[in-house]
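Q: Could you fold this chain for me?
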Amino acid sequence: MKVKSPAAWGVFLCCVLLWSVSAPCPAAESAGKNAVDTPVYRPPENLDLRRRVGGADDTASRGFSRGFSRGFSRGFSRGFSRGFSRGFSRGFSRGFSRGFSRGDAGEEAVKMPSFMAPLAPAHLGLTSKRQPTLYFYVSSAWPGPITFIVNSEKKIEPVLEIEMTGPKKSGKVMSLSLKKHGVFLKPGVEYEWFAVIIPDAKERSADFFGSAVIRYREPEPGFLKKIASAPKERRCFLYAQAGYFYDAIDSVSGPAGSKKRSKTFRLRRASLAEQVKLPFVAEHDRKMAGTE
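A: Sure. Below is the predicted structure, expressed as structure tokens.
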């Protein structure tokens, strides 16, 4: 067999390299089919503990809730929640469809939502804002109130505890602005927040909730300049890349505009939800965007 010269081998290898660079890869082809470019969330390092409760497609037994909710006041999480949610499986969708009776006669049964999902990563999530807006998804309509609680690891009593009106429609993303309620997050402090449905105040074993953890990390001046100079529709990319998941979600949840713009934001939020394993939220947004 004739041995090729070093020069010939060099030409051959260059051709192979050029072919490999120019050849289309499956991932690129798949991305090309999507008309909307999507942000990529880069989680902060060393945050591998599971901290979110709710949102995954697996379930936890209802019996677990009886152990912690019985005997607690409406601020059931005070001083205790920080212990049970860390490391607990984030799949708290419960598949719980049994209704409860309204009124003494029990003439009307109201079906509980099947799951409630904080729009947050499974681990501790970061925000660059001292007064962020928090979002959570409720799978179905709920005629009663939803109790919203924010706990600080530095305080025994909740930082915030209010009641919100439940969603009137199925598949609703709800929000709560900490700025509206005068709540400021302190740098480096962990806050655990809850959205809770209390169907029976006398029997707290039926409480249904979702929770997540947030921390304010002061952004670098250079990052703030990038955000200020970036178009609003592109800020979600910067937030996601910097690890500020809460801000990335906020930047694609708040803006309103044309149908095309609304569809774009929904698809970007669906992508972020998928990246932190919130399949039901992603499915909801894609359905609302008309892509399913």
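A (continued): The two ends are 58 Å apart (CA to CA).
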